[in-house]
From TrEMBL:
Organism: Pseudomonas prosekii
Name recorded for this polypeptide: DNA ligase (ATP)
UniProt keywords, alphabetically: ATP-binding, DNA damage, DNA recombination, DNA repair, DNA-binding, DNA-directed DNA polymerase, Exonuclease, Hydrolase, Ligase, Manganese, Metal-binding, Multifunctional enzyme, Nuclease, Nucleotide-binding, Nucleotidyltransferase, Transferase
Annotated NCBIfam families: LigD_PE_dom, ligD_pol, NHEJ_ligase_lig, NHEJ_ligase_prk, PRK05972.1
GO molecular-function term, one example from the UniProt record: DNA-directed DNA polymerase activity
Region (Disordered): 1-28, 190-223, 520-564
GO biological process: DNA recombination; DNA repair
Record-listed E.C. numbers: 6.5.1.1
Gene3D superfamilies hit by this protein: 3.30.1490.70, DNA ligase/mRNA capping enzyme, DNA primase, PRIM domain, Nucleic acid-binding proteins
One Pfam family, short name: DNA_ligase_A_C
InterPro entries per the UniProt record, alphabetical: DNA_ligase_ATP-dep_C, DNA_ligase_ATP-dep_cent, LigD_ligase_dom, LigD_PE_domain, LigD_pol_dom, NA-bd_OB-fold, NHEJ_ligase_prk, NHEJ_LigD
């Protein structure tokens, strides 16, 4: 009997393609405690198409749908049956190399669970499969109907059933309206194919540019009430400028800001919907002076340095000092104006109308973001030389959509590499701890370490503090570089042993070897300092002689501070190539964020001596673990991690995860929080998690409890409810269990109050069991023992609907989020004072308790 995946495997060389081999798969015909999954993958192969896959009997039954699904029951979409795929293909995104079967880019366009109506195997044999989808984009009842066409091909039709989820295609084309991945920030800008002109665009791209109907007429404008809220359109990062008709603007290094104007009242909102009107009074007043009846305006608030270059650090300083008058509001779009919705108007027409509106303003605090029609490569080079972030490109003719879109793209300046840190300067002005880092590079010919300039931007208070602690132990009297700066530049310099590496972005390296317009991005130590030279493009026209293979060093490599990390190059996660040293560096970089959340909480460690794929050890006390800096509690066999030394020391002992109690020492008998862990059936789409989180937050709000949200780093969401220590463990656990039972009774089709995979098939179990004494929850900012080393991250509640999953941040990209945060999502956590009352207990059906 042949395996269902024989056809799939025979067509692929798994040494060359990143596609999953299906070596690990669920046994066919066996029951499992998980709903059936489906996925639709957008595949830019020889022809752009959509692969529709349903989990049936242990594999993904698959059909290629050339035009993609339609929500219109009157539209039949051709679906060609293809070979079965392995179950883990449902999450595959990537690029299949040229020359291989199915070569091209793949993204997960939709995913979720499906429910067959009738016996699916019998229905397949009869050629008519009826089913219900619950995905991020598709829902309701669908049909797959086999045609009677003869031949090797197996054509079917994919048809939407007439129900509440159906929509006429003339009103809503789901393929065009929602083109991007549901798992990541990936999108597809389909490649140019033979016979296409530079202007020709595949069907899946946005409508062609529309012309004005006449003077003063905006194409697609329609009368409509002023929207109460508006989410901004977001740009997609691309490596190079695509062909076609695009206009480019400067990418500002500031805060995205939307202005809502109604009857002369101005409100300013951040990207996440936070009202910042009080922080920007001058800007609000300038907008009010435009005399608009109603409007939504989109732009970026920016603070520029003395050279006119936008500086994120100066912007933060302006907010912190309350000097908003120095902040300029660059406006680049106008989705709504005076009773008219402009979102379907082509971008060039919206911007032209915005420019005319801004002609009324005499205040330099409001400015129009000019665009340029020149070659994108030349513009990007100029922007980088000016120390700008890069460019934003907007496709001519495109509408305004409140999501990430490939109609808006961003091109970033990419010059970036490691430098040896050879010294630092004294701080000046408001700066504390140090002013700039002095950099060095080894000469490729002589091997000498030579001075390469300074980097003094890119730091905040947290990074200044953590980096300074690593600099002081390395101070020496003499410079390590052979050409140290002299005169004024050498004044107040502290020289260092050349051990630390700084990753720095810059516009260029001058002829004398110094960086210009440098921006600090982080410390790293995954390379030996002696190997750091200027990175230059390699000439591949002539074959090069391979460098001799280097043997791995056996000696320990120092990590910042006093802890030495043994086996620093050991790979602990094969999927990302992450090493033990990179994990240690991550925890050093977030020490100022994670340590306050760990302080005085008993900690349990998840240790992985063989990496995330090996055996894991859950450890609640420090016996037989020589971790420097770790603390204990009198009379308790628990450990506390209250300092960076203990944090990194635990990583040295192969710790990846840090789990914490719901109480703090010395009062370990009264919890100071409870946690509701929303644990979904893994096959459920993220949309289900968004709905569940919103519903649970609503219940907590109605009870009068302030709660805080964080991702689990896995599939779920944690809702953390701080408490003033008062009630016993049993009382708090009973209350949290009461909430869960209340919700499961209220919406049984969504929630389960009983643990175990079999009890949450197609549903979400709200785990209250973490609220007993000694139970723990993954700590905020802690990494997880999963592929990619994702991190549990505090978020604003509005962000649940904006992110693609609970594992979007990991040890390699969290620094980008932390650097962009205008405010801490948990800023009010420590100030929250609340207790569980009898009135709260009554509302969820619990008996009152005597106090």
């Amino acid at each position: 009997m042949s395996d269902a995946l024989d056809d799939y495997n025979s067509k692929r060389d798994f040494d060359a393609t990143p596609e999953p081999s299906g070596a690990v798969k669920r046994k066919r015909g066996t029951a499992k405690a998980q709903a059936l999954q489906f996925c639709i993958q957008k595949h830019d192969a020889s022809r752009l198409h959509y692969d529709f896959r349903l989990e049936i009997d242990g594999t993904l039954k698959s059909w290629a749908v050339p035009k993609g699904p339609s929500l219109d029951p009157q539209v039949k979409r051709l679906a060609m049956e293809v070979e079965d795929h392995p179950l883990d293909y449902a999450s595959f995104e990537g690029s299949i190399p040229q020359g291989h079967y199915g070569a091209g880019d793949v993204i997960v366009w939709d995913r979720g669970i499906w429910k067959p109506i009738g016996d699916p195997l019998e229905s397949l044999k009869k050629g008519k499969l009826k089913f219900e989808l619950e995905g991020e984009k598709l829902g309701g009842i669908w049909n797959l109907v086999r045609t009677h066409q003869e031949g090797k091909q197996k054509p079917w039709f994919l048809i939407k059933h007439q129900d509440a989820a159906a929509k006429p295609e003339a009103e809503f084309d789901v393929v065009k309206a929602q083109p991007d991945s549901v798992l990541s920030e990936r999108t597809l800008i389909p490649k140019k194919r033979k016979g296409e002109t530079a202007e020709a665009k595949p069907v899946e791209q946005v409508p062609a540019p529309r012309k004005r109907k006449g003077s003063g007429t905006l194409t697609g404008a329609k009368k409509a009430p002023l929207p109460a809220t508006l989410k901004p359109q977001l740009a997609t990062l691309v490596e190079s400028a695509p062909s076609g008709d695009w206009r480019y603007e400067i990418k500002f290094d500031g805060y995205r800001m939307l202005a809502r104007i109604e009857n002369g009242t101005v409100q300013l909102f951040t990207r996440n919907g936070h009202d910042w009107t009080a922080k920007l009074p001058a800007q609000a007043q300038a907008l009010a002076s435009l005399g608009l009846e109603s409007a939504w305006l989109d732009g970026e608030v920016v603070a520029a340095d003395e050279n006119g270059v936008p500086s994120f650090q100066l912007l933060q300083n302006a907010f912190e000092s309350g000097k908003s008058g120095a902040i300029v509001f660059y406006l680049f779009d106008m989705p709504y104006l005076n009773g008219v919705d402009l979102r379907e108007v082509p971008v060039e027409e919206r911007r032209s109308a915005l420019a005319k509106v801004l002609e009324r303003s005499e205040d330099e605090i409001l400015r129009f973001s000019e665009d340029f029609g020149e070659d994108a490569s030349d513009l990007l080079a100029s922007a980088c030389q000016m120390n700008m972030e890069g460019l934003i490109g907007k496709r001519v003719g495109s509408p305004y959509v409140s999501r990430r879109s490939d109609d808006w793209i961003k091109l970033k300046c990419q010059q970036r590499q490691e430098f040896v840190v050879v010294g630092y300067t004294e701080p000046k002005g408001a700066r504390t701890l140090f002013g700039a880092l002095l950099l060095g590079l080894h000469d490729k010919d002589s091997g000498e370490l030579r001075y390469a300039g300074k980097v003094g931007t890119g730091f905040n208070e947290r990074t200044l503090k953590s980096i300074h602690a690593q600099l002081t132990p390395l101070e020496v009297k003499k410079p390590a570089v052979v050409n140290p700066p002299t005169g004024f530049e050498a004044k107040g310099v502290h020289w260092l042993k050349p051990e630390l590496l700084a990753e720095v972005a810059y516009a260029e390296i001058t002829k004398d070897g110094s960086v210009r317009h440098s921006v600090f991005h982080g410390l790293r130590s995954d390379k030996p300092a002696k190997d750091i030279t200027e990175e230059t493009p390699k000439d591949v026209s002539e074959p090069s002689t391979p460098a001799p293979e280097k043997k791995p060093k056996k000696s320990a490599t120092p990590t910042p501070g006093k802890i030495r990390i043994t086996h620093p190059d050991r790979v602990i996660d094969a999927s990302s190539g992450s090493t033990k040293m990179q994990l240690a560096e991550y925890y050093v970089s977030v020490a100022d964020w994670i340590l306050p959340t760990l302080k005085n909480r008993p900690i349990a460690l998840v240790r992985a001596p063989e990496g995330v794929a090996g055996e894991l050890f859950f450890q609640k006390n420090a016996e037989r673990l020589a971790i420097p800096g770790i603390e204990s509690v009198d009379g308790e066999t628990v450990m506390l991690i209250n300092n960076a030394e203990a944090l990194v020391g635990a990583v040295q002992m192969s710790t990846i995860e840090f789990h914490s109690w719901n109480a703090r020492a010395p009062d370990l008998e009264r919890p100071d929080r409870f946690v509701l862990d929303l644990d979904p059936d893994p096959a459920l789409p993220w949309k289900s998690m968004v709905e569940a989180t919103t519903l649970t937050l609503t219940i907590l709000d109605e009870l009068g409890l302030t709660s805080f949200v964080k991702t689990s780093g896995g599939k779920g969401i944690h809702l953390v409810v701080p408490l003033t220590p008062k009630d016993s463990w049993d009382s708090v656990k009973e209350f949290s269990h009461g909430i869960v039972k209340y919700m499961a009774k209220l919406i049984p089709q969504r929630f389960s109050a009983v643990s175990g995979p079999k009890n949450r098939v197609g549903r979400i179990f709200i785990d209250y069991l973490r609220n007993a004494k000694g139970a723990t929850t993954i700590n905020a900012y802690a990494a997880r023992t999963r592929e990619g080393l994702p991190v549990s991250v505090p978020i604003f509640r509005e962000e649940v609907a904006e992110i693609k999953g609970a594992n979007v941040w990991n040890i390699h990209n969290l620094h980008e989020r932390l650097g962009e945060l205008g405010e801490d999502p948990w800023a009010d956590y420590a100030k929250t004072r609340q207790t569980i009352t009898n009135e709260m207990r009554r509302k969820i059906g619990l008996k009152p308790v005597s106090k």
